[in-house]
């Protein structure tokens, strides 16, 4: 019996795409109908749809994407060292300053980023005051480059200057390294563009007292501190390791404390170092970010892969990079405004557009992607626990796989969605969700709120077209 | 049989693993099972139960240990398979949170795992893509959307044929599968007549007439209007025919279509020879030439198709005579109402095939009848806004509906035309159809009666009468309540026929 005849003997189970009238009339007849919340794939762009249809039939892509995501999942980030950027980061020299997001020149930079660069030049002693710093920044003496092009990541302005100490993360599985500065805490801090004396003094203290102590402590730990394991546990404790790092910072504190005590430095110094970690509940953000970075870097460069390996913003542009395309090839669109809750005293127009490399966490499937397991953050960004769970669920529609290492308790320990596939993003019209802080658009004021934001669809459209040109142009349709 | 497997860098939380271990231990033939992360404590535990190996001793706390001891190899393999199944992320999928309607077919079939039919009415340029996705998911397809290319239609139907799936459409307005009306369909009796139709309202009319004559429907499969074109080659009609031939609830098969392309017709007629059941072939408005086919009964109108099919089921003959008695219309009296110059009729149709049927009835009795559904050039109406004489208009054609809903959904489209025709001193009769059933407007007569009143008033003021003849394509089971619709028309003095054919015949008698 063929399928048509077998349909005749079954109860109809109907999916209805399009006018709801047909669904209503089927329900009047007592039928099971599921109405789709349909909208045209790829936003109705026929050209993109044709590309998607061509790419969807490519077996190479599925295999490559599987490979890219396997590499992300099996990556194993370990904190092995703290060292100054100029010593640790490849390609970093005395005249290089790294920033967040895709490439950008000084005159287009957002307020907080400009402020942070001024701060960095003051901190490095390259300028004596704000005016001189601006002059230097404008001159071509300083090379600006994205952190992401140097195996590094930075939250908010993401400024890394040569003397700044960075966490050195080693990917035990693939042997690559990643870097990120030390989180300075909240309020007036460099990453939000503040550069007054207090900020510079704190950076100096980090360089001169904090980093050497932690470096010594790390030396005493055989094999370093397992960041992957901390993230796994923290996700079970209500962190999503982007906007909430309470549990992970505590776990990190637990790991490092004894080793700090074991160092030969003054008790007062030990106390200040531990006090600093304890007092900053976002300390771990600057570990979770490079941990994600080493995993996504390990997944970059897989031919035929449409998996996103970077999402980063510089406060003006949002940029993504794709595994199967060039190492430093960015696809950009204007950074969006963040929607969420403002801190008391601030208005929406005070906020800068989306900024920072912290979306590397979402690229790796935590942050906004794991928000369903982080009920405490939900209030902070405005929304309900149900919404958050919904977001985490939805991200599975645009990803290649699930990461069993980072499983979400509220979703019955389902692995978080990992491996954003540009084909799926375009086809389904679902954008990655990013759970992030809002910077004041004026340098140095700090965080003004937190909320949710999406990348612009434009990044994905450009990437898809480029991918099509790279791999399918010239092939028979 | 005992074995210990280490999976590097595969972290699972302890609660998951503990519950997993207990499930494995509960399996028949399993004597010992430790599924845990290789922490020092767990490695010790492994030692204690005698499942430790060199590998497990060297494993790290991020490595997963799967150690199972079973009474035989079979039980071991079963246990291992269950471990994999329970650890696989997909098996943990459970929808939580607010229910959101799925956006895609892929997602929808996760929600409704036993889905078997997709009804698609999205804009044409996207419709083929969705239909293809549905077919890939082994769903039958009702494709209501139009503006789908012939190439796409062919591609979809070939996939459907290959997989044994229905592809009803594109541009398929009506079907009735398992006595469930899809899109535009009337509620009719369940019975033993199976239909495959390449015409929406044609299919509706045959179903309604079968019902009225006491018969019933087993299945009514729509194919979309182009199925019998040369390009498509009747793929779905053939598939439908074969399925109905095999269907034990179907005794008589009816095929409905406009006259097909000749090579396709030959193919279909050839196929009919292999069919065991009687087949009624209705080529609407077709030429009655000598088609030779021992199996098929050829008819050329919708009513005839219905009557032949009911006759062939053999059970309803006595009822037939009763029900076929014509409605008592006193044509002589009606003729007296019209002035000599009121020589012409105007047909204002919502159902395209009903308009074609009226044309085939009326063209023989009048010198000239013109219509926008006419195939032949001399009958084709030039300008739908400037005409005289006998005219039949299908208001569902694109020229009327551009940017508006189809008149079966929104019959008010016709109101303006009714007023317009009433102002033409040469018009004697206005012929209309009303479609009931699923998909159609909730009160098609109700939204029209005012304009009938007004039209009559306009005519009366100009010193003449205007005769309205109507047909309601519907049954007493339809949601709009047939009797009430009929009463409303009769209150306005409208003559209500029992079939589209009868309505056309009444017009013919009045004006010829």
TrEMBL record, chain B:
Gene3D superfamilies the UniProt entry points to: NAD(P)-binding Rossmann-like Domain (3.40.50.720), Succinyl-CoA synthetase domains (3.40.50.261)
GO molecular function: succinate-CoA ligase (ADP-forming) activity; succinate-CoA ligase (GDP-forming) activity
Pfam families: CoA_binding, Ligase_CoA
Residues annotated as domain ATP-citrate synthase/succinyl-CoA ligase C-terminal: 348-507
GO biological process terms on file: tricarboxylic acid cycle
Record's signal peptide: none
Domain CoA-binding: 190-282
PANTHER family the record matches: PROTEIN FDRA, SUCCINYL-COA LIGASE SUBUNIT ALPHA
Name of this protein: Putative enzyme with acyl-CoA domain
């Amino acid at each position: 019996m063929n399928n048509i005849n077998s349909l005749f003997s079954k109860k109809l189970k109907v999916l209805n795409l399009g006018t709801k009238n047909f669904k209503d009339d089927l329900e009047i007849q007592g039928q099971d109908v599921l109405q789709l919340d349909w909208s045209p794939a790829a936003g109705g762009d026929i050209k993109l749809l044709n590309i998607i249809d061509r790419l969807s039939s490519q077996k190479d892509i599925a295999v490559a994407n599987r490979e890219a995501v396997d590499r992300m999942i099996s990556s194993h980030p370990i904190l092995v060292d703290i060292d100054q950027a100029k010593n640790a980061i490849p390609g970093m020299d005395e005249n290089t300053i790294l920033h967040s997001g895709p490439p950008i020149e000084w005159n287009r930079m957002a307020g907080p980023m400009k402020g942070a660069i001024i701060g960095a030049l003051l901190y490095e002693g390259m300028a004596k005051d704000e005016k001189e710093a601006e002059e230097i920044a404008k001159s071509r003496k300083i090379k600006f480059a994205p952190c992401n092009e140097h195996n590094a990541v930075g939250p908010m302005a993401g400024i890394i200057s040569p003397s700044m100490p960075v966490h050195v993360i080693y990917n035990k599985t693939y042997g690559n390294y990643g870097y990120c500065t030390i989180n300075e805490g909240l309020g007036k801090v460099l990453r939000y563009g503040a550069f007054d004396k207090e900020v510079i003094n704190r950076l100096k203290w980090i360089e001169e007292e904090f980093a050497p102590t932690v470096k010594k402590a790390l030396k005493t730990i055989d094999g370093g501190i397992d960041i992957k394991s901390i993230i796994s546990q923290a996700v079970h404790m209500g962190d999503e390791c982007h906007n909430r790092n309470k549990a992970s910072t505590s776990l990190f504190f637990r790991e490092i404390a004894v080793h700090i005590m074991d160092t030969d430095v003054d008790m007062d110094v030990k106390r200040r170092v531990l006090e600093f970690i304890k007092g900053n509940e976002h300390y771990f953000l600057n570990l979770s970010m490079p941990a994600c970075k080493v995993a996504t870097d390990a997944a970059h460069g897989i031919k035929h892969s449409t998996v996103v390996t970077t999402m980063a913003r510089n406060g003006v542009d949002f940029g993504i990079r794709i595994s199967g395309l060039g190492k430093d090839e960015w696809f950009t669109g204007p950074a969006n405004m963040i929607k969420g809750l403002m801190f008391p005293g601030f208005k929406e127009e005070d906020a800068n557009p989306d900024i920072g490399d912290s979306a590397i966490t979402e690229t790796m499937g935590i942050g906004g992607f794991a928000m369903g397991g982080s009920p405490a953050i939900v209030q902070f960004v405005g929304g309900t626990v149900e919404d958050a769970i919904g977001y985490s669920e939805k991200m599975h529609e645009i990803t290649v796989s699930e990461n069993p290492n980072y499983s979400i308790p509220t979703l019955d320990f389902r692995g978080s969605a990992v491996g954003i596939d540009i084909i799926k993003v375009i086809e389904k019209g679902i954008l990655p969700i990013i759970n992030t802080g809002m910077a004041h658009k004026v340098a140095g004021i700090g965080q003004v709120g937190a909320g949710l934001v999406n990348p612009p669809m434009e990044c994905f459209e450009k990437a898809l077209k480029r991918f099509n040109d790279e791999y399918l142009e010239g092939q028979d349709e | 049989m005992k074995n210990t497997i280490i999976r590097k860098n595969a972290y699972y939380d302890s609660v998951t693993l503990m519950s997993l271990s207990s499930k494995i231990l509960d399996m028949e033939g399993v004597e010992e099972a430790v599924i845990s992360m290789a922490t020092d404590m767990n490695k010790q535990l492994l030692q204690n139960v005698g499942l430790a190996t060199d590998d497990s001793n060297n494993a790290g706390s991020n490595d997963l240990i799967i150690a199972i001891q079973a009474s035989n190899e079979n039980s071991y393999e079963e246990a291992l398979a269950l471990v994999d199944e329970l650890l696989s992320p997909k098996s943990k999928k459970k929808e939580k949170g607010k229910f959101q309607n799925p956006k895609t077919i892929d997602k929808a079939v996760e929600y409704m795992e036993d889905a078997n039919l997709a009804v698609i009415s999205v804009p044409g340029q996207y419709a083929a893509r969705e239909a293809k996705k549905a077919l890939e998911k082994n769903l039958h397809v009702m494709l209501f959307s139009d503006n789908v290319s012939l190439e796409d239609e062919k591609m979809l139907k070939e996939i459907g044929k290959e997989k044994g799936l229905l592809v009803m459409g594109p541009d398929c307005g009506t079907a009735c599968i398992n006595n469930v009306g899809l899109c535009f369909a009337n509620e009719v009796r369940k019975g033993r007549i199976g239909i495959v139709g390449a015409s929406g309202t044609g299919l509706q009319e045959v179903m309604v007439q079968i019902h009225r004559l006491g018969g019933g429907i087993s299945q009514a499969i729509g194919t979309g209007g182009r199925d019998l074109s040369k390009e498509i080659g009747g793929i779905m009609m053939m598939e439908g025919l074969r399925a109905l031939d095999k269907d034990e609830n179907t005794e008589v098969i009816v095929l409905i279509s406009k006259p097909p392309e000749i090579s396709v017709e030959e193919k279909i007629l050839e196929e009919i020879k292999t069919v065991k059941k009687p087949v009624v072939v209705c080529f609407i408005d077709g030429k009655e030439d000598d088609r030779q086919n021992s199996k098929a009964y050829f008819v050329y109108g919708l009513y005839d198709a219905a009557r032949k099919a009911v006759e062939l089921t053999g059970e309803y003959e006595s009822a037939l005579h009763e029900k076929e008695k014509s409605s008592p219309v006193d044509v002589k009296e009606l003729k007296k109402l019209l002035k000599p110059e009121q020589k012409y009729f105007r047909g204002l149709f919502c159902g395209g095939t009903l308009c074609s049927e009226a044309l085939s009835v009326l063209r023989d009795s009048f010198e000239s009848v013109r219509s926008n559904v006419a195939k032949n050039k001399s009958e084709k109406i030039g300008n739908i806004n400037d005409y005289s004489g006998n005219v039949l208009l299908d208001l569902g054609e694109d020229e009327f509906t551009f940017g508006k809903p189809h008149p079966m959904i929104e019959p008010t489209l016709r109101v303006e035309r009714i007023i317009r025709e009433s102002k033409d001193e040469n018009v004697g009769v206005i012929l209309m159809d009303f479609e009931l059933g699923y998909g159609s407007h909730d009160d098609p007569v109700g939204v029209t009666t005012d304009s009938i009143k007004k039209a009559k008033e306009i005519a009366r003021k100009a010193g003449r009468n205007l005769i309205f003849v109507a047909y309601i394509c519907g049954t007493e089971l339809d949601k709009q309540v047939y009797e009430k619709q009929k009463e409303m028309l009769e209150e306005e003095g409208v003559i209500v026929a029992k079939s589209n054919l009868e309505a056309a015949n009444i017009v013919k008698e009045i004006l010829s």
